[in-house]
Specification:
The chain is mostly helical. It has a single domain (6-102), classed as Winged helix-like DNA-binding domain superfamily/Winged helix DNA-binding domain (Arc Repressor Mutant, subunit A). 38% of the residues lie in helices and 7% in strands. It has six helices and four strands. It has a two-stranded parallel sheet with strand order 1-2. A two-stranded antiparallel ribbon has the order 3-4. Strand 3 (92-93) and strand 4 (96-97) form a beta hairpin. Helix 2 (27-33) crosses helix 3. The longest helix has 11 residues, at 7-17. It is globular, with a radius of gyration of 13 Å. The relative contact order is 0.20. It binds a DNA duplex (13 and 13 nucleotides) through residues 1-3, 6, 8-9, 26-28, 31, 36-49, 59, 62-65, 69-75, 81.
DNA sequence: AAGCTGACAGCAG
DNA sequence: CCTGCTGCCAGCT
């Protein structure tokens, strides 16, 4: 994959880097925070392009607004996303984070611009 | 070069 | 409640 250094992608990564261990955020929350409300799909695309870049982007900490692991298919192994999250103490059943309310990390609230 | 495609989300019907 | 249309925007055909 070619250029990953667009300003949009960088903004996404900067936020994702700040998601704390054991917490998750959502595509929509991130899009909203960086000022492109509604561009949640592009956040997903940014995650897709983030596999090569260094330092590693904790893309497994980004899920959809229902707490579903919608991106799991894009990891090197289908179970990797779930395993990484479970390693951080997050409980998952049927691709859904059980205690989603508790572990959800909203950049708009946690980060003051 | 123009259109299609997404790891989404919100609202209408 | 659930299905579906629309906005969003970079990359790929």
């Amino acid at each position: 994959m070619g250029k990953v250094n667009t300003s949009f992608f960088r903004k996404v990564y900067i936020v994702v880097y700040q998601i704390p261990y054991g917490r998750v955020s959502t595509y929509g929350a991130i899009a909203h925070f960086i000022g492109t409300r509604g561009a949640a799909r592009m956040v997903g695309w940014a995650m897709n392009a983030s596999h090569n870049i260094v330092p590693q982007v904790p893309a497994h900490r980004v899920v959809n607004r229902l707490g579903l692991l919608s991106g799991r298919a894009h990891f090197s192994s289908p179970n990797l996303m779930q395993q990484l999250l479970e390693n951080e103490g997050i409980q998952i059943k049927d691709d859904k984070i059980l205690n989603f309310e508790q572990v959800f990390w909203d950049p708009s609230k946690e980060l003051k611009p």
